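RECORD TYPE: inverse folding
INPUT: structure tokens
STRUCTURE:
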């Protein structure tokens, strides 16, 4: 399976963006998908996930500001990024996990990754 992110860009503090991630190839078995982000010099951070049943969870730092959703008919994962802050500046990655009994935001449990889309928030 291949993952391709889009929708990143530059935005002023308080602004909004919508990130997309299209999955192609073998998309039959998908247990959950997630968004991660990584700022220069920092570890990769889990942003939000959605599992095959539509259950979602967001990371503490973005809760109530970011919303994850999916359109299974289009094999597309979305991240609505609202009320942005300069600390949201990072490369945002889409990730996919084929199997599991529960979904979480541990990067090592995801086997497929996109190349990322850059989000830059100016104050």
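DESIGNED SEQUENCE:
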């Amino acid at each position: 399976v291949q993952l391709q992110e889009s929708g990143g860009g530059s935005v002023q503090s308080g602004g909004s963006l919508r990130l997309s991630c299209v999955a192609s190839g073998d998309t039959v078995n998908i247990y959950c998908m997630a968004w991660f982000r990584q700022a220069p010099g920092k570890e990769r951070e889990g942003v939000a996930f959605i599992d095959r049943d539509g259950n979602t969870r967001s990371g503490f730092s973005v809760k109530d500001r970011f919303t994850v959703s999916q359109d299974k008919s289009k094999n597309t994962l979305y991240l609505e990024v609202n009320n942005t802050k300069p600390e949201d500046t990072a490369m945002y990655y889409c990730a996919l996990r084929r199997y599991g009994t529960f979904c979480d935001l541990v990067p090592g449990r995801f086997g497929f990754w996109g190349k990322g889309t850059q989000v830059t928030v100016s104050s």
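NOTES: DSSP finds no helices and eleven strands in the chain.
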